[in-house]
């Protein structure tokens, strides 16, 4: 069990650029979650997948954000036309259907200059 | 909407003393309450959880209590050690059938040696 893996760990980009993050969940977990965490705050729910289906999206997920999980394994989160307000830690978590226990990756820290 | 409030935001204790962190939640349908510990540069790690059908759960030096009537739950750490220093988050979710997890804002615990 290698845990939840996120890449890259850090991303620095200029405002207006597009960025894409990847999450590899624990292999037998079919649920995958994306969260955003800003300094001094708890993680905020963005979206959730069960297998390849995106079942829930937060109001926080503007139309510049898109997430995919095409084969029900790894997932990508893309942010288009990045803004300085997008600077945050983006966390991925996964869980198994039998239990809603979410295991988190180390996150991708995004800095938009 | 759903909300989880967490207090205190900062807690400083002497090594060996106990630490208590309290949370309240707004959605009465919530039935799963995990607690996470987050160290610098890492994702949140589950330390203990409780489901709505029990009032208390203990794991070595860590215990969690739940009062569903009052919609509040607490984390108790006894015999604190310097390595307990971290940010702790409480969370509430609907468990099976609803997977959006709402996190508190976190408590930064300092354990002084």
Distance between the termini of chain A: 36 Å
Helical/strand content category of chain B: mainly beta
Number of strands of chain B: 11
Global geometry of chain B: globular
Major β-sheet of chain A, in short? 7 strands, mixed
Q: Which pair of chains has the greatest number of interface residues, and how are they split between the two chains?
A: A-B, 25 and 25 residues
Number of helices of chain B: 0
Helix content of chain A: under 10%
Task: List strands and helices in order, with pairings.
The complex is a heterodimer of chains A (113) and B (113).
Chain A: E1 5-7, E2 10-13, E3 19-24, E4 31-37, E5 44-50, E6 53-57, E7 65-68, E8 75-79, E9 88-95, E10 103-104, E11 108-112
Parallel strand pairs in A: 2-11
Antiparallel strand pairs in A: 1-3, 3-8, 4-5, 4-9, 5-6, 7-8, 9-10, 9-11
Chain B: E1 4-7, E2 10-14, E3 19-25, E4 32-38, E5 45-51, E6 56-59, E7 62-67, E8 72-77, E9 86-92, E10 102-103, E11 107-112
Parallel strand pairs in B: 2-11
Antiparallel strand pairs in B: 1-3, 3-8, 4-5, 4-9, 6-7, 7-8, 9-10, 9-11
């Amino acid at each position: 069990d290698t845990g939840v893996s996120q890449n890259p760990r850090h991303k620095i980009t200029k405002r207006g650029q597009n960025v894409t993050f990847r999450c590899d969940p624990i292999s037998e977990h079919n649920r995958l979650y994306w969260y955003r965490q800003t300094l001094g705050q708890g993680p905020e729910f963005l979206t959730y997948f069960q297998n390849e289906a995106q079942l829930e999206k937060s109001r926080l997920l503007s139309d510049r954000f898109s997430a995919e999980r095409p084969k029900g394994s790894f997932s990508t989160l893309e942010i288009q036309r990045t803004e300085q307000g997008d600077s945050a830690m983006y966390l991925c978590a996964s869980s198994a259907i039998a239990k809603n226990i979410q295991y988190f990756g180390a996150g991708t820290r995004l800095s938009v200059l | 909407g759903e909300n989880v409030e967490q207090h205190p935001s900062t807690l400083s204790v002497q090594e060996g003393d106990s630490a208590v962190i309290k949370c309240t939640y707004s959605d009465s349908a919530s039935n799963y309450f995990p607690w996470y510990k987050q160290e610098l540069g890492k994702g949140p790690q589950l330390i203990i959880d409780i489901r709505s059908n029990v009032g208390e759960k203990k794991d070595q030096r860590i215990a969690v209590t739940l009062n569903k009537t009052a919609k509040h739950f607490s984390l108790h750490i006894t015999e604190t050690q310097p390595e307990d220093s971290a940010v702790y988050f409480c969370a509430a979710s609907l468990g099976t059938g609803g997977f959006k997890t709402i996190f508190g804002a976190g408590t930064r615990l300092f354990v002084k040696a």
